Amino acid sequence: MDTQHKYMEIVTWAIEQINTGHFLPGSRFLTEAQLSDRFSCSRQTVRRALEVLVQQGLVTRLQGSGTFIAEDDAHPASQRQRSMTVGMIFTYMDSYIFPSIVRGAGDALVAKGYSMQLLWTDNTVTGESTALRMMMDKELDGLIVEPTRSALPCANIELYHMLADRGTPVVFIDSYYPELTIPHVALDDIQAGWMATAHLVEKGHRRIACILPHTNRQGHLRYLGHVKALREHALPIKEEDILWYSKENMGQLLSAGRLLDFLTPYSAVLCYNDTVALQVMETLAKNGTRVPEQISIIGIDDSEAARYTHLTSIAHPASKLGEAAVAQLLSMIDGKGGKSVLFPPRLVQRSTVSDHRQ
Q: Can you give the residue range of the structural domain that contains 229?
């Protein structure tokens, strides 16, 4: 774990210890040296954690005397006055699987008496910055955030540090930033990539292309799963088999001429998600290439559009992701800490993958 941000692990542990009575009001807390030894981190990391605990009213620090658990008039986080409102930030809100994620989270929040504030980033760094700042101006008990371009270094890391310093719990959904020790809830993307590729190999395909985004961590993890499946079946791993795209150049890379040239050597293609798979299918159909007779296609997410078009896909838990994110966030709000949760993928076979065995 990155020691620069390990302070949140100390904060979460301290809140749990205080709320369960391991440290009583007025008692002496662990010293900086003891915390540093316990969590194998620097004194600077410990001091940052203690600053957060002081700001939350959980401990007091007396120069020359040490750190003490706050008296009864400073309540633990789980007993504080709550706004009963949670903020949710997504990359997009109006299409694809995101309404299902929001619906799952919303139902779980309403069941616990919470309301929610929704914002979206349009999958841009500036959009994420604006959304985070707007949420920080509101009275919120916590935040659920879908990271923006999560394969890139987190450009808004200082805003997340500010949220931590304020004691605002955050849970990432669908992806995460590895620079931050924040729990995340997501599909097991490595396993999803493995499952999709393994299915194609089991159907006899040996030349398999991939179309993946280089800016989203999910794309990188699905690539790792793809590579794992190739290794297990003693198939070669070639850089030229991967078409990496970004939001900016996706239209150009998936244009008819470029796409048809790229796919010519392959009998099957693994697409990052159903949206990309359907774009590929549309382009191929317009240019006389038959699916799956000439090339097989598999997507990821099992979206509603995949069902209409008979696309073989890997199911995304969608609404369950929203429910799980809320469960972890409410646990953090209660001072019990949160954990990361990965959902196993599930193959949904339809008619876009042919049997290529001889």
A: 189-315
**Closest Cα partner for 85 from 135, 24, 12?**
135
Cα–Cα distance for residue pair 46/49, rounded to 1 Å: 5
Our count of domains for the chain comes to 3
Distance (Å, whole) CA 176 – CA 157? 12
Average pLDDT of the chain?
90
Cα(135)–Cα(132) distance, rounded to whole angstroms?
5
> What are the backbone dihedrals phi and psi of residue 342, each rounded to the nearest 5 degrees, phi first?
-115, 130
Tokens of 206: 């040996």
**Tokens representing residue 100 in the block:** 């299902």
Please tell me whether residues 284 and 169 are part of one structural domain. no
Residue 335 CB partners (closer than 8 Å, separation 6+): 15, 16, 18, 19, 76, 77, 78
277 and 172: one domain?
no
Closest C-alpha among 139, 162, 159, 164 to residue 147: 159
pLDDT digits (tens, 9 = 90+) for 279-297: 999 999 999 999 999 999 9
Q: Is 152 helix (H, G, I), strand (E, B) or coil?
A: coil
Give residue 135's identity as a one-letter amino acid code. M
Residue 145 and residue 208 in one domain = no
Is residue 352 included in any domain, yes or no?
A: no
CA distances from 163 to 48, 91, 142, 158, 166 (A): 13, 19, 9, 9, 5
Nearest by Cα to 53 from 87, 82, 13: 13
Domain assignment present for residue 351? The answer is: no
CATH number at residue 338: 3.40.50.2300
> Which pair of structure tokens corresponds to residue 230?
């190739």
Q: Are residues 94 and 167 in the same domain?
A: yes
Specify the higher pLDDT residue, 252 or 309: 309
